[in-house]
Amino acid sequence: MGTPVELVKYEQRFRRAGLPLFIEDFSPTHDIFARATPVLALVFLAEVLGAIELTWSWWQNALAVLAGLAVLVGGFGLLNGMRGRPFWSFPTRFGTPEVAVFVLLPALLPVLSHFQWKQFLGVAAGNLVLIGLVYVVVGYGLIGTTIWGVRRLASELASSVASLIRALPLLLVFSLVLFVNTEMWQVFAGMPIAFIVLSAIAFALLSDLFLVLRLPQELDRIERDAGTGPPLRRIQRLNLSISLVVRQWMQVLVVSAGVGAFFVAFGMLAISEKLYGEWGIQPGAWSYTFELLGHPVLISAALVKVAVGIANFTGLYYSISLMTDATYRTEFLDNVTDELRELFTARAEYLELRSRVLPAES
Predict the structure, then answer these.
(1) Of 184, 279, 297, 336, which sits 20 to 30 A from 24 (CA to CA)?
(2) CB under 8 Å to 61, separation ≥6 — which residues?
(3) Is the pTM above the cut of 0.70?
């Protein structure tokens, strides 16, 4: 017949896999914000410090903090009463009124204590961003996906290193040419670190965009191959897409880091201080020279910048290859297809069990 306990086990499995939206009736008010209530409560109470003023004496600030605490606790207690809950209880349902109180009530403290309307806008905007982050992180299972990745870090690392070894000959065809190119060194060696980080983010967004455009047909294939259960809803497909994007990030990060480390090591051996001078390249903010096998070896900020730049290009190439090259695509998707097939089967069993258990409860 099945029991509610078995349903909970299925739901826990979906959460651990980073797919909480596979749970039927998954709701932001009940499942997302309610699970994050302790964290939100700590932030809510910490914002009582918005009532203090540095120019006041300690006892005035102490009174302001107590008054602010009374406003926050009293405001939420009043809302609890209006929602039919005990005054001191945590909300079991985090709906629009709770969100409004969480965003606006702490923001009012600077206004009530010293008429700081700019601080009101800053606190309100910060709380709104925090609510959005909680919705994305908890609602789309990013914590579960990350924990899944950490648990499988060894196997994922081995798979990514194997991919790097297979991809390295082709990558070196253009990467080595770029690396020993004077113009490439002049571009990246003179580029501010912030710009290099910005270019890495831009490349990551480009690879994600390409993956998102290709994912629908891949998800159709995976779901068709699984062959069990009703079709996924749009929000569930989005949850699965985000999970696959995070998993791809992990592989691309390992490959990019490996290529970057390779070029740092290769550059230390191949790019001498004499070449720096001939190319007109400054070592950068720091540089160290030491001897290896009786020969001077130079590592510098410029070398690291160029290696990171090449690694960015390589990561973009590899992420696109995961969806276009038959070998890489099969390797990446096959690593997750078996697990997803099991999850689709579990979802079908879960839905069947739920159809039996819920009528029995009612």
Answers:
(1) 336
(2) 52, 53
(3) no
Is the Cα torsion angle 236, 237, 240, 246 positive or negative in sign?
A: negative
172-176 LR contacts (CB < 8 Å, sep 24+): 175/259, 175/263, 175/310, 175/313, 175/314
Structure confidence by residue, pLDDT tens digits, 117-137:
777 888 888 888 888 887 777
With vertex at residue 191, the alpha carbon angle to CA 187 and CA 192, rounded to the nearest 5 degrees, is 175
Residues counted in the chain: 362
Express each pLDDT in 200-234 by its tens digit.
888 888 877 777 777 777 777 777 776 666 788 88
- For 19, the token pair is 């797919």
295: β partners? 292
Q: What DSSP state is assigned to residue 29?
A: I
> What pLDDT digit, counting tens, does each position of 179-200 carry?
878 888 888 888 888 888 888 8
Q: Distance between CA atoms of 70 and 56, rounded to whole angstroms?
A: 20
Is 34 in a helix, a strand, or coil?
coil
Confirm if 93 and 59 have CB atoms less than 8 A apart. no
